[in-house]
Design a protein that fits this description.
The protein is α+β, with helices and mostly antiparallel strands. It is 44% helix and 13% strand. GO terms for molecular function: SH3 domain binding; small GTPase binding; superoxide-generating NADPH oxidase activator activity.
C-alpha cells in the first residue's frame, strides 16, 4: 500500500473514532494493508472504548511487535493485562515501558501524533497497582514512594493518598492513556491528500535532500530540540534544548538517527520538532 493510501485510511479511521463510530473505525483500520504500530495502537484504544480487553490485548501485542521501543504501547498493554488479571505479564510491560523511557521523566508523544505525555511516575504507579494485586504490599509501597519522588507539581495529594491506600492494603486503580486520545496523522499529510495539479492528479513533491557537511550523508530534514537529551548508551546522540539536529535516517516510528555538534547517534523523536531546512551544520 502506498503511504498516501495509508494516511487516507488512517485519517478516515480517526474521523470515525472522533464520532464514536467504533465499528466503522475498526472496519477502516482493518482494511489498511500492513498497518503501522500507531494504527494498531489506535485499534487497541477502540477495543478499550468498547469494553473488549481481549481485542485490545491482541492489538497492543501487534503494536509493540511493530515497534518494540514504543513505551506507551507497553504501558497500554500492561494496563490491559492488569484488567485481564495477567499480573506477571503486566509487570513485564510496565518494566519495558520504564526501560524505553530511558531514565527520562517523560516522553511527549505530540510529535508522533498522540496528545499525551507518558510520565515515569505513571508507569511506577501502575507497577504498584499490580504489586498490590499480587499481595506484594512492601514492594508496592517502595515503588509508589519512587513514583512520589518523581511526581510533578500538582500530583502531590493524589499520590500521597495512593500511598495511604497501599499502607492500608487497599488496591490502586490503574491509569491509562485517556479515552479519546489516539495517534493521528500529521496535519500536513492530511492536507496534501486533496492537493492536485492542474490536470487533476495528486501532486508529488520531490524530496529536497541536502548533504550533512560533516558526514556527506543526505539530510532528510532538520529538527530543533525542545528538550535536552542525555545519552544513556554509547549509540545515543546527546544534545541541549535549542540545538539543531540533522536527521540522517528514521530508525523506527519513535527513534531517529541524527547529527549534532560533531556527534552522531540515535535519539527519541519526541524530544525535537521539525525545522525548516537550511541551518548550517554545527
Amino acid at each position: 500500500m502506498a503511504y498516501r493510501d495509508l494516511v487516507r485510511g488512517w485519517h478516515e479511521g480517526i474521523l470515525a473514532m472522533d464520532k464514536g463510530d467504533w465499528d466503522s473505525a475498526l472496519k477502516i483500520f482493518s482494511s489498511i494493508e500492513e498497518p503501522s504500530s500507531r494504527i494498531y495502537f489506535n485499534i487497541g484504544c477502540v477495543h478499550l472504548s468498547t469494553g473488549n480487553p481481549e481485542g485490545a490485548l491482541q492489538a497492543f501485542d501487534k503494536t509493540v511487535t511493530k515497534d518494540n521501543h514504543l513505551a506507551v504501547g507497553f504501558f497500554q498493554r500492561g494496563f490491559v493485562c492488569l484488567q485481564l488479571e495477567m499480573y506477571e505479564e503486566a509487570l513485564y510491560d510496565f518494566s519495558m515501558a520504564l526501560t524505553h523511557l530511558r531514565n527520562n521523566p517523560f516522553i511527549d508523544y505530540k510529535q508522533l501524533g498522540l496528545r499525551h505525555m507518558l510520565c515515569a511516575w505513571e508507569v511506577l504507579y501502575n507497577t504498584a497497582a499490580v504489586q498490590c494485586r499480587l499481595g506484594l504490599w512492601q514492594e508496592a509501597r517502595i515503588t509508589l514512594e519512587e513514583a512520589i519522588r518523581q511526581r510533578p507539581e500538582g500530583r502531590t495529594t493524589s499520590l500521597d493518598v495512593a500511598l495511604e491506600w497501599v499502607q492500608n492494603h487497599l488496591f490502586l486503580e490503574p491509569i491509562h492513556v485517556p479515552l479519546g486520545e489516539f495517534f493521528r496523522p500529521r496535519k500536513e499529510e492530511v492536507e496534501q491528500l486533496d492537493s492536485k495539479d492542474f490536470l487533476g492528479k495528486p501532486k508529488v513533491r520531490p524530496p529536497r535532500l541536502q548533504k550533512d557537511a560533516c558526514s556527506d550523508r543526505p539530510v532528510l530534514y532538520r529538527m530543533v530540540a525542545h528538550h535536552g537529551y542525555t545519552a544513556q548508551r554509547p549509540e545515543d546522540l546527546e544534545f541541549n534544548e535549542g540545538d539543531t539536529l540533522d536527521i540522517l535516517s528514521e530508525v523506527n516510528e519513535e527513534w531517529l538517527e541524527g547529527h549534532c555538534n560533531g556527534n552522531f547517534g540515535i535519539f527519541p523523536k519526541c524530544f525535537a520538532a521539525q525545522a525548516s531546512i537550511g541551518a548550517a551544520c554545527p
